[in-house]
From TrEMBL:
<protein>
    <submittedName>
        <fullName>DUF2254 domain-containing protein</fullName>
    </submittedName>
</protein>
<feature type="transmembrane region" description="Helical">
    <location>
        <begin position="104"/>
        <end position="126"/>
    </location>
</feature>
<dbReference type="InterPro" id="IPR018723">
    <property type="entry name" value="DUF2254_membrane"/>
</dbReference>
<feature type="transmembrane region" description="Helical">
    <location>
        <begin position="132"/>
        <end position="154"/>
    </location>
</feature>
<dbReference type="Pfam" id="PF10011">
    <property type="entry name" value="DUF2254"/>
</dbReference>
<keyword id="KW-1133">Transmembrane helix</keyword>
<keyword id="KW-0472">Membrane</keyword>
<feature type="transmembrane region" description="Helical">
    <location>
        <begin position="16"/>
        <end position="37"/>
    </location>
</feature>
<keyword id="KW-0812">Transmembrane</keyword>
<feature type="transmembrane region" description="Helical">
    <location>
        <begin position="57"/>
        <end position="83"/>
    </location>
</feature>
């Protein structure tokens, strides 16, 4: 349960409204609690920096920040739609999690709410002269934060929505997801083999249809330990499942156990980067496919994508999980491993289907797979050699 609560909070923190609400609440608290700080400031300053000094500044901020926020939102939506049309529609959800945009817009909205609320409280004579001095000091800090946010926003707009920014964002999230698998092979559990389902296994049905997004390993391990059994995931994160189909198998357990185990596996309408390192590779491959479409015909972008794919697979490919001797953190749960062949299939075959008529694209693919054949992981080296032969890249280019 704790693991799922942390997952929920982490997903909320990636949403724009969360930071906006948080900054807005802090702005209101600063205004309401300002009178409590008046003993810390000398009374002599209240005559020079009181109500008449701070109220015009708050009025200017209240009128200016609303226009800046509205303009920034329009720019953000236009840039994100442009990026989604150039790359892949699924990147739009990733762009919405851009933390720089979140911080800037939250600062603008927070500044607007702070200034507007300050004007209202001053008109209501909420502050004494000493309290007005505290608000003046807070207002100076708010102005500095807003100016810093504007400068950061100007710099960020230079790349927002561009292909370079979009590809860099996908690559960064994919690298984080792959490195998480390096730190916790098989999600910290045992690696499931391909021996099939035991004859006496009990099916744990999926609670809904959709993509497996997150497996609560700690909760599953605790349930299995209490029931004296072992759980094996039938569908790894990123795979699609229909409601009622087995999402996992258990060596034993009653209906209550199966329901509790099913709730520990999050299933949603869209895929997530949380435990799915192949999702980012798929997004990069889709971007290359879009670039190779007849309407765009941009093999240069496809080549750049393959460069990023090769870099990700070379530097961050999960270790050979099946032969890993690392002691699992959740010994009562088995998870299908992320294999090198699976990662390669998510990355290169889609591009090969669309770029088979382009010698430069196929030549670069041949080069990338040939380099991966020298990977330190023998599984990756073998899978790359097999795929190069399967795709028939030869020596084109």
């Amino acid at each position: 349960m704790i693991e799922q609560c942390l997952l929920y909070l982490r997903r909320m923190a990636r949403k724009l409204w969360f930071r906006v609400v948080l900054i807005s609440i802090l702005s209101l608290l600063a205004l309401l609690l300002a009178p409590l700080a008046k003993p810390l400031l000398p009374d002599s300053l209240s005559e020079d920096f009181g109500r008449e000094a701070v109220l015009p500044v708050l009025t200017i901020l209240a009128s200016g920040m609303l226009a800046v926020t509205t303009f920034s939102l329009n720019v953000m939506v236009s840039a994100y739609r442009t990026a989604a049309s150039m790359a892949t529609p699924r990147v739009y959800r990733l762009l919405l999690e851009d933390t720089v945009t979140h911080r800037v817009l939250a600062t603008f909205v927070g500044g607007f709410i702070y200034s507007l609320s300050g004007v209202i409280l001053f008109r209501a004579w909420y502050y004494t002269p000493e309290g007005a001095l505290v608000v003046f000091g807070i207002t100076i800090i708010v102005v500095v934060l807003i100016v810093g946010a504007i400068l950061r926003w100007i710099d960020h707009l230079s790349g927002l929505g561009s292909m370079d920014h979009t590809l860099r964002l996908i690559e960064t999230r994919t690298r984080d997801s792959m490195r998480a698998r390096l730190d916790a092979p098989c999600l910290g559990g045992q690696c499931a083999d391909s021996s099939g389902v035991p004859a006496d296994a009990v099916a744990i049905p999926a609670a809904r249809s959709g993509f497996v997004r997150f497996a609560g390993m700690a909760q599953l391990d605790e349930l299995a330990e209490e029931a004296g059994t072992e759980i094996t995931l039938a569908r790894a994160p990123g795979e699609y499942i229909l409601r009622g189909q087995p999402v996992a198998w258990a060596a034993g357990g009653d209906n209550d156990f199966c329901k509790a185990a099913s709730k520990a596996i999050d299933i949603g309408d869209v895929r997530s980067f949380d435990q799915d390192p192949s999702f980012g590779l798929t997004l990069l491959a889709e971007t290359a496919q879009r670039a190779l479409s007849p309407g765009i015909n941009d093999p240069g972008t496809a080549i750049e994508v393959m460069g990023r794919l090769g870099r990700l697979l070379w530097e961050n490919m999960p270790a050979d999980e099946i032969s890993s001797t690392r002691k699992p953190d959740f010994p009562n749960v088995k998870v299908p491993p992320v294999t090198a062949r699976h990662l390669l299939r998510c990355a290169f075959p889609p591009i090969a289907r669309c770029g088979s008529d382009s010698p430069s694209v196929m030549g670069w693919m041949h080069k990338s797979l040939e380099e991966l054949e020298h990977h330190s992981n023998p599984e990756m080296a073998k899978a790359a050699a097999e795929m190069r032969e399967e795709l028939g890249t030869g020596g084109n280019g």
